[in-house]
Amino acid sequence: MRICTSIMLAGSLAISACQSGTTSQAVADKNSEFGCIAGTVGGAIVGGLIGSTIGAGTGQVLAVGGGIAGGGFVGNRLACR
Questions:
Q1: Among the listed residues 55, 78, 79, the one whose alpha carbon sits nearest the alpha carbon of residue 67
Q2: pLDDT at 26
Q3: What span is annotated as the signal peptide, if there is one (predicted)?
């Protein structure tokens, strides 16, 4: 049992040594992409909430749709510079 555990541990360490490290540029790109997505989704949510306060019936549905589209666009523009 101890030999099997030792072999598995040694194999895991050997495999992890082959992994390449991430560069700071790759991390920055990933953070930038997350911020862009978060800005777009956040803007769409806020726009939809604002649109839901306008009108009633079919007009409200159109206002919510327009708020989602407009909020997503504005959020994308602000976050994805």
A1: 55
A2: 59
A3: 1-28
